Amino acid sequence: MADASKWKFRGEGNACLVLVNLEEKMVYRLAKSKYWGKGHLLTNAEDKMDRIHEELQLVVDYMKNVMQPLLSPYFVILPELRLLEGRLTQEAEYQIKTSRPAQRKGKDVEHSTLDPTTLSALVMPDLCYIRDSHLYPKCSYPILSVEIKPKKAFMHVPDSLSVKSEENSQVCKFCMHQRLKAKEGQWPVTSRYCPLDLFSGNRVRMKQALLSLAETPQNNLRICQDGEEIHGAWNKEDMSEVLGGFFGSSHNGISNGLHKDHKLLQTFLDLVLEALLFVPQDVNDSLFEMPSLYPHTVQYCQNSRYRPDLQTDCDNCGDLPTGCVLERIFSTQKLDSLDIDGIYPLYLKLKKYINDSPALRQRYCLDGPYQDDDWLQACSQLNCDDEEDDLIIKDSQCIRSMVNKVKRFLVSKTVQDCSIMVALQRVPDNYNEDEGGQLLKDVHGRLFHFSVSIVDLDPKPFCKIPNYYKQVYEIINAYREACTGEFSGTVDET
User: Fold this and answer.
1) Angle between the 399-416 and 465-482 helix axes, to the nearest 10 degrees?
2) What confidence tens digit (pLDDT) does each residue in 283-303 have?
3) Which of 31, 372, 392, 407 is the most exposed place for a label (fewest CB within 10 A)?
4) Domain that holds residue 102
């Protein structure tokens, strides 16, 4: 890792920083200098190094044994846990820091961005490029990738309050959260995106969601060209020039007819939408039986820019195709039917019993390990018949049932924070479709290779539940404070 010119900053979270190796086209995820292991600050270098390695291994196990069976091995690409032979030089640290967004350069960072004791990294292919691209003929067209953080796909609303018209509408959690972010000054403008539109199964609404993401990306949308960000919260290049190069010349004598910026963007987002609705051939090889997509209850968010039209909705409505990436995410989020208001009381009970009998935490693997099939089965088993030693729980609930419900909640929270990676590249006009590979076709008949993946699938710790409980009421209060006198509908308080 000594050659700093091979490395480039890609992104970061609170605990980890992501670098891309430009030669390998591989992404490395490394621990940052202020790394907390399960809430306990570690000062001994050797202990800290071991803890980092153990927790990165937990991420791999969780993705392999929980996320892959739920979301499909096609969409979830497993990272490899590697021990690094060298460390980044001071020159590399300097290059990383100059590439980081301003809001990530905290005043309290006095030493290296990367933890000096880090010898472990999660390594996986750079999904800004098309997976298995080595199987396709080399092509001179650029690769555009779109990273979407779709967030929570639905509202928990009692049947008695189900939305039937614009006058009786709710506001989804994402849109309410925008008011809190505005209050805290996180973004200069509120997002125009609403997750309920993207997951609606209505192509008109879904297209509106993608357009809204493009207009106000915040940290929910990022577009890269050959791995370099060109459109996002802090970087907005001229998309008409980029998309002109992406689509290239006319096909079979048909002019592309893309003379206006919005036409370019519309055609590109149509391709992205088709990729999001794509069902891989091996969808029936899922390792875990998922709940069916019920009949899909239509929900509308008052803050959405989309306004329902009965005739238009009737012509364009439809469930998400079973097995597409959006349906997998939606169904996995739906594993939790209680949300934080229902889970928090169970958390308090479990915490009490764990304090009285610490062995329970290890027995039920709330925070891993994730190697036992029993952990995933919690997502389908909500009842138990056996007694748990001498512990008696009121309301006839057994510990295992509570644990399973909490696990379902934590799985849902993981997928509410995931990201979708869509990579697209036009293929030459003389390409033979019989040569294989996944292909999309635009309205002008041009063909594109593509791939779709899901990333950011870390397990959520049991101890974080109180934070979720606190945050949701901060969101609700901020929304009510901002909308006093303006809003008479029902707030999705869960």
Assistant:
1) 50
2) 554 545 555 444 457 788 988
3) 392
4) 4-125
